[in-house]
From TrEMBL:
<keyword id="KW-0963">Cytoplasm</keyword>
<keyword id="KW-0378">Hydrolase</keyword>
<dbReference type="GO" id="GO:0008855">
    <property type="term" value="F:exodeoxyribonuclease VII activity"/>
</dbReference>
<dbReference type="GO" id="GO:0009318">
    <property type="term" value="C:exodeoxyribonuclease VII complex"/>
</dbReference>
<dbReference type="Pfam" id="PF02609">
    <property type="entry name" value="Exonuc_VII_S"/>
</dbReference>
<dbReference type="GO" id="GO:0006308">
    <property type="term" value="P:DNA catabolic process"/>
</dbReference>
<keyword id="KW-0269">Exonuclease</keyword>
<dbReference type="GO" id="GO:0005829">
    <property type="term" value="C:cytosol"/>
</dbReference>
<protein>
    <recommendedName>
        <fullName>Exodeoxyribonuclease 7 small subunit</fullName>
        <ecNumber>3.1.11.6</ecNumber>
    </recommendedName>
</protein>
<comment type="function">
    <text>Bidirectionally degrades single-stranded DNA into large acid-insoluble oligonucleotides, which are then degraded further into small acid-soluble oligonucleotides.</text>
</comment>
<keyword id="KW-0540">Nuclease</keyword>
<dbReference type="InterPro" id="IPR037004">
    <property type="entry name" value="Exonuc_VII_ssu_sf"/>
</dbReference>
<comment type="similarity">
    <text>Belongs to the XseB family.</text>
</comment>
<comment type="subunit">
    <text>Heterooligomer composed of large and small subunits.</text>
</comment>
<dbReference type="InterPro" id="IPR003761">
    <property type="entry name" value="Exonuc_VII_S"/>
</dbReference>
Length: 88
């Protein structure tokens, strides 16, 4: 069974659909991930839908991690500049 093309994590998803997930803020991705988790935990989905939700959740988790990693790098950079008054 094929997944709908509107699912940005579907195997045949377009670059635009995948890019849409990449454009989410951390808060948006986290909220969507929480919705996916609630849907999976409810147990009311069939196998195909559960797999699609799982794939979307994995991608959303990657987006969240990327945002956190970026924030961590910015904080570290700011700390290093603060520790070295000659750094620009």
């Amino acid at each position: 069974m094929t997944q709908p093309p509107t699912d940005p994590t579907a195997p045949g998803a377009s670059a635009e659909e995948l890019a849409a997930l990449e454009q989410l803020s951390y808060e948006q991705a986290r909220e969507q991930l929480a919705e996916v988790v609630r849907a999976l935990e409810s147990g009311g989905s069939g196998l195909a839908e559960s797999l699609s939700l799982w794939q979307r959740g994995e991608k959303l988790a990657q987006v969240c991690q990327a945002r956190l990693d970026g924030a961590r790098a910015l904080v570290e950079s700011a700390r290093e500049r603060g520790a070295d008054p000659t750094a620009s």
